[in-house]
Amino acid sequence: MRIAISTGGGDAPGLNAVIRAAVLSALGRGWDVLGIKRGYAGLLGEDEVVPLTRESVRGIAHMGGTILRTTSRGDPFHYPAVGPDGAYCEVDRSDELIERAGNLGVDAMIIIGGDGSLRIAQRLFERGLKVVGVPKTIDNDVSGTITTFGFDTAVNTALEAIDKLHTTAESHDRVIVMEVMGRDAGFIALHSGVAGSADVILIPEIPYDIEKVCDKIHSRDRAGRYFSIVVVAEGARSVGGSVSVIGESLPGGDLRLGGVADKLAREIQTRTGKECRSLILGHLQRGGMPTGYDRLLATRFGGAAVRAIAAGCFGQMVALQSPHIVCIPIVEALAQPKRVDPSHDVVMTARATGVSFGD
Ligand code: F6P
Description:
10 helices, Rossmann fold
């Protein structure tokens, strides 16, 4: 039995712990393990395919990043290429990929990725490749699993920043607006904001009204609390407004969101006359050592992925449905994107403790 492992899309703390657990579990069964470098590029001859041994995964569980590298521009069905006119184009290299996997003697693949990579995994499965998915994203926006690894680490990174911003905001009677990741889902903003006692939390799922945001800041002033902390997800937008885009992506990449914190800080300063500052936490949330929770979850996912292969559960994704790790069809996980439910208890409790969502 020979399996291959790949990591695709944006990285998340815990990827190495999945790889380590999967490799050790597979070797323990007497299987061979290959690592596909940089998403699917290794199978397309654009990067390497390397053997993964006990030595390759020694001492990596606590490390951020991925020893296999990753890319957000490696969809084999829409692979970046240069056309005859020298311009960017996309080509379907999925046949080539499946053939290469066959030539390498790969019996099954573990694909660790977010919704984009899992969608590709599903298409490859429909074309005959035996795949098992492992959900990964700091945004926690994959359905079917209570949480994804990387999310807890990102929340803790954001929380540490909020704690630090509190002391300086209070010293200066300032409003500080901190932007966290979350294109479509506001879980990082919600969880770090609630845990960090933020005053305003703005998420993509609840469009905000700037007047309401300023009302909250005024009411704190009247109560003698002259500073405020606003946590905003990068994908948040005002009622009827649009998301803030920070810059150009390379061709074939996603739009790069960002800048909503700065926009909000300017608006709040103009409307309230209070001194405002802004901060984009950015990729700090994706880097560094995974928390204990993420390391354990990632390790459980890696072990479960190998058990899924042994049981022949292909086209499935491992998922946390506490207290168990289960397997669910990838299509089921992809059917409905996971978003913050505005009636969830975390939102209700936040409101009850005075947090404004700007609505
Ligand atoms: O991992 C998902 C995510 O964190 C999004 O919230 C964010 O928009 C995106 O990654 C940014 O990724 P990159 O800069 O790698 O394109």
